[in-house]
Design brief:
The protein is globular and about 85 Å long. Helix 1 packs antiparallel against helix 12 (about 325-340), helix 2 runs parallel beside helix 6 and helix 2 (about 65-80) crosses helix 7. It has about 450 residues and is α+β, with helices and mostly antiparallel strands. The chain contains 13 helices and 19 strands. The longest helix is centred in the N-terminal third of the chain and has 18 residues, at about 10-25. The N and C termini lie far apart (about 80 Å). An 8-stranded antiparallel beta sheet has the order 12-13-14-15-16-17-18-19, with no helix packed on it. It has a 7-stranded antiparallel beta sheet with strand order 2-1-11-10-9-8-7, with helices on both faces. The protein has a two-stranded antiparallel sheet with strand order 3-6.
Length: about 450
Amino acid sequence: MTTPQDDLLPGTRRALLHRIAVAQSQGRAPSLVAAVVRGGETVWTGARSSVEGQVPDADVQYRIGSITKTFTAVLVMRLRDEGLLDLVDPLEKHLPGTGAGEATIAELLAHTGGLAAESPAPWWERTPGSLRPELADVLGERPLLHPVGRRHHYSNPGYSVLGALVEEVRGAPWEDVLRREVLEPLGLERTSGQPQAPHAGGWAVHPWADVLLPEPAEDLGRMAPAGQLWSTAGDLARFAVFLAKGDDRVLSAASVAEMRTPAAPPEEADLAAGAAYGLGMQVQYRDGRMLVGHGGSLPGFLASLTIGVADDLAAVVLANCTSGPPVSAVAADLVRIVAEAEPRIPEPWRPLPEVDSSVLEFAGQWYWGTTPYALRLTVDGGVSLGPLTGIGRRSRFRANGDGTWTGLDGYFAGELLRAVRRPNGTVDHLDLGSFVFVRQPYEEGASVPGGVDPEGWRGIR
């Protein structure tokens, strides 16, 4: 894979190399490989190794653990986009008899389905999947530990269930569907269910001595959709571009944005840490920026894929040890290093190619009560509404083609914005979910809820 390394400044490249060198050394990882993506291209790769002359590159496979869940979530979102299921459907509608059928598909994606964190003993990550040949063996006699939909409780069996759902709807094995619908369209030729040379071996590092123990690499069977995949820094860099921008051959930009949106109530500790979970993607607020992606681990391996969407940056970090380097923190640092050293240069301002004069009429200042708001036209043909100063309710709106707009985000998501006119055709006010916006605070003669005192504004004597 060719990477335009010169796209980053020498000082930035050195800072990136220093960060992974510290992580590999202090984390005592047999090897560690990383990649940085900017503007949809891999702009830096680096690696460190404990074996002189055997430094891995971005084409060496590592096991990626729970990053596999994001791939499974993409398959489920494809089924939704094709109309084969709805995220609010209970699992029972499409995969009956599991004992967890009251959980919705969205709840399983967001780990709010109430399922246990792990399958029954023996521990599935270090034992053959043949010990759990059926879904019932994965879920056990008591699949639900919590009320459905009430709390975020990370569940590996939940993603085994989602993989089974994909198989049921598609009528083909999970891995075959994944290869046909995601890996091949995105050109992820070095991502697979089984290791393909060159690949790293998985190791445990003794906590109190600099010695190693090889870890088993089990075929996870039914648990594969939760953590089976092997991949490379190069392939995951390409996958990160897809997760940031979408690809209509696989999933639209709108659908991957939906995956990145928090969908689960965070636990108290997560709330304090600025962490949340979307639909198959982890969300974290760190160093003043929103990061999305997923981490992964299996015996012998650690992995992280981290995307700073606003900075148009992503980082991948892979290591072949059971514990040691904090790969998610390292990936976040790689994003931060580039974002701070080489801030994203905004696109040039350009005027709109055309404007609807009937919409331009509404641009400018409006008042909700005494709070000044600004309505602005946006480049996509919609409008935005937000307070002129301070913190307040802000939303973007899409045009509906009939003179109304529907909220896209924020407090007014889904709410209808419309202009209410007087008999003579002039605008009396804007109505937004019963909120009235007028051109002057408590404008005389306007339809302000509760009316306006006839004596008007006054001072105090």
